Amino acid sequence: MGGSSTAENGLTPARTRVSVIADELRRGIEQGDFAPGDRLPSESELTRRHSVSRTVVREAFARLRSEGLIETRKGSGVYALDPAKAGRQPFSDLDTERLSGVIELFELRSAFEIRAAALAAMRRSGAQIDRIVKANEDVAKCFDRGESTREADFAFHYAIAEASQNKRFPEFLSLIRPGLVPRVELEAGSGTPRAYVPNPDLVTEHDRIIDAIIAGDADAAEAAMKAHLEGSLERYRDLLRGARE
């Protein structure tokens, strides 16, 4: 595999950093540069090679994992699988670095998560409420430290899905996890990166959902989750509209 960087390859904005790394590794696996069982370059190596953050590398790995091309072995690294046996998973072709892909996903997940919030209000246990509250506290801490809220926000939504007492809800979130909380920089229809400004009311909106779940008010939980997700969806639509003007 070559060690050239994104800049050296003269790539256009339409090929974003996650795609560049995923495409390079996928090509290596499919062409036999990485045989089944071979260890792939580490996160640190790919971070240095492409001058990107670990988050970008992890998203590239997540994309290949969803395609059945790699597996992660705890404490050992990431290894290539046999591409002939790889089965494309649902949503594996969803490009969540593009605004249009993010919007597609938000429209789909809204229907599931709004209902999950209502079920959580009716079925949650005390321990599950504690996990939901703890996840939102972690979101607030990330905000205070100026850090990404991606993982904490996923944990919040996942905890609500678990509290629905329907295992299909958390399974669905796990399936779409790589694109559930998009990165800060996204491609517009023109291929131009657009900066997404994080929702400043995220913690407050989460609090409203939590209050309704604790109160056992399914209607209020649905309404709070709907307002939360539709607000995010509208922000992405505004970005896409701005890119087309």
Automatic annotation (TrEMBL):
Region (Disordered): 29-48
Highest taxon of the lineage: Bacteria
Xref: PROSITE patterns: HTH_GNTR
Keywords carried by this UniProt record: DNA-binding, Transcription, Transcription regulation
Keyword Metal-binding appears in the UniProt entry: no
Record-level Gene Ontology MF annotations: DNA binding; DNA-binding transcription factor activity
Transcription regulation found in the keyword field: yes
Ranges for domain HTH gntR-type: 15-83
A Pfam family reported for this protein in Swiss-Prot or TrEMBL: GntR
InterPro entries documented for this protein: GntR_C (IPR011711), TF_FadR/GntR_C (IPR008920), Tscrpt_reg_HTH_GntR (IPR000524), WH-like_DNA-bd_sf (IPR036388), WH_DNA-bd_sf (IPR036390)
PANTHER family per the UniProt record, alphabetical: GNTR FAMILY REGULATORY PROTEIN, TRANSCRIPTIONAL REGULATOR, GNTR FAMILY
Protein name: Transcriptional regulator, GntR family
Origin species: Salipiger mucosus DSM 16094
